[in-house]
Write a structure and sequence with these properties.
The chain has about 220 residues and is α/β, with parallel strands linked by helices. The chain has a single domain, classed as DHBP synthase (Alpha-Beta Complex), CATH 3.90.870.10. It is built from seven helices and twelve strands. It is globular, with a radius of gyration of 16 Å.
Length: about 220
């Protein structure tokens, strides 16, 4: 069901419907500051499996986790290094995904993550409001694997409509470009995927700290 969010009343109705769908183990499509995403409760293994099935993806490609507050990152990732925190302070909320060492106490199954977790705080008020109600969501781009990421609700519905319960329609994506992914599990950060944030832009924050990124993107 695609739900508009143009008015305050529509927005509240749509967000509550999406939050209820998440609590019931369903999938929802939500707008972000990059592209539209499809999300599930990160702590519901069945829902996460459903997300991977909807995208035509295997366990070897675990989804990132979106959060509503930077402080939540410490509950999900272990011992984030100082350079990672500098990037988070500068670019969160925003199109930066960090891959850290997963907290060993977490009771979830995102796939074959090899002890890591990818985390992002999106810069989109509707997404953040939903996340505040649901807690961390496993979210991947709203598309079938191999197809372009959806930049509006109609594209997401065409590809994933049969798998999702609620689609939050907030118009075309403002960003339209995927997030930049940085591996922060080592003493020096590594670019895993180039995206909306340029490497030079990221390094400008790190150079005063005496470090820079290894660009593997």
């Amino acid at each position: 069901m695609r739900m508009p969010t143009s008015t305050d009343e529509e927005r509240e109705t749509a967000i509550e419907a999406a939050a209820l769908a998440i609590r019931r183990g369903g999938l929802v499509v939500l707008p972000t500051d990059t592209v539209y995403g499809v999300g599930a409760d990160a702590f519901d293994a069945d829902a996460v499996r459903g997300l991977l099935v909807a995208k035509g993806r295997g366990r070897d490609m675990p989804p990132p986790v979106l959060i509503s507050a930077a402080t939540t990152a410490d509950a999900l990732a272990l011992a984030l290094p100082g350079y990672a925190r500098a990037l988070m302070d500068e670019f969160w909320p925003g199109p930066l995904t960090i891959v850290g060492k997963q907290q060993p106490s977490l009771q979830w199954d995102l796939g074959d993550s090899r002890g890591t977790v990818a985390i992002r705080m999106p810069d989109h008020p509707l997404a953040l409001e939903l996340l505040e109600r649901t807690g961390p969501l496993a979210v991947s781009s709203a598309n079938v694997t191999g197809q372009p990421a959806a930049t509006d609700a109609a594209q997401a519905e065409e590809m994933l409509g049969e798998h999702v319960t609620v689609i939050l329609d907030d118009g075309p994506s403002v960003g339209g470009e995927a997030s930049t992914i940085i591996d922060v599990t080592g003493v020096q950060g590594r670019v895993l995927r180039r995206g909306a944030l340029g490497v030079d832009e990221l390094n400008a924050v790190l150079e005063p700290l005496g470090t820079s990124l290894i660009d593997e993107g």
